[in-house]
Queue: 3 jobs
Job 1
Amino acid sequence: MSLILDLQNIALGKATQNQPENSHLPSALAVDGNSHTSLSRGSCTETGCCTPLPWWRVDFGSTALIYSINVTSRGDCCGNRLSDFNVRVGDSNVGRGENNTLCQQNIAVPQGQTSTFICNPPMYGRYLYVQTNIEKRLPLCEVEVYGETFMKRC
């Protein structure tokens, strides 16, 4: 017997990134449901040029069980920018999320492409972080997080 889950994109409309005042566009553009890969079309976000070790975060608002993440990179230029990054999941919102568990590390998405990353085993946490390992801009055109959220009981 196999279990088939009908997972939803639980990141839609939920995001923050470091130093948004130094960013080209709001972080929420990476979770707007539009995966167009051109920054000028208004569907991508990118941290500013002088942001040291940038990160981007989804706050699910409550505990989530994360199975997989789809990440879409810019297609209009800068193909090497979305490389050497980590995905972390956990309950800590301190710093760059470095206290959270690694789902994937040292990964990359080719220019204009979407790549899927699996958390194996699935991971629990309120936050999902995308964090670079080197100093450069962090461009994201769309981030889809597939999993389940759990409501807190009073």
Job 2
Amino acid sequence: MHRILTGLACLLTLGLVAGCADHSGLPRTLAQNVDLQRYQGRWYIIANIPYFLEKGKVGSYFDVSFTDGKVVDVYNAHDTNFDAKLDQFTLHGYVVPDTGNARWRESPFWPLYFSYLVLDVSPDYQTALVGYPGAGYGWILSREPEMDDAAYKALLDKMAAEGYDPSLFRRVPQTQAQIGQAGFQ
């Protein structure tokens, strides 16, 4: 029995590593000269290409902070409805040198690291687009929990211009009324 459980744990770990490996297909552009002091703080996840930990989450946001090039990224979300307890997990990492602060490496635990690519940030640091190598995952972020349809469409178009498939994005409910609406998770 111990051998079976050990084997299953190894397969699960290999599957997670393979599914989250840093793919070579970087996007065409990254944001230039990201001001980490202005970037830090709360970002609401307006839409994403959800991966298994984000599927079905509502009210998702993260708080990011930087100290001496080190990143702390704390993700928060409710599972399926706003009455559920707020789940949280923390990623630690670093800003990759010579990337204009637009590429980070984050980890839930050593030795596993993920790339965080700041593709675009608005001049007022109110919206941001974040990608992942290979364009398999992406996030549309805002300082505010809600975004009008025109602003969302404009940001989705920017993601498409970077090679991300807009049909894979799902809006994340940030209010109770958005749960179950078309286009939302």
Job 3
Amino acid sequence: MTDEVLFHGTAHKFKKGDVVLPASRIDVERNWGAKSKNDPNYAYATNDVEQAKYFADVASFLRKNCYARVYQVEPVNPDTADWREKRFSGGRGGSQSFVEHASPDGYRVVKQIWRGRRR
């Protein structure tokens, strides 16, 4: 079980107590589109609020006409959630690595902590 505060960045509007589920459990092929390397059987969170804001901004850009949002979350089942390192290609041939928290059971929303601009 993690004692760290976790955040989930998204364009979706959640209420306190809602559960952020893996893409495969809500009949979505993959988060971030078909070319994404994210495993659709997991929901994702981070302990870095700025990283969560970045992902929320990207999600709102992809969905159009919605707000970027960051929620404080907690794993639904801490025994099945774990940290993993992720690497992705950045612009201009660069790459970046970061650590993400992944859960097959999802994350329960504790509260909304940030709302960005509407895209």
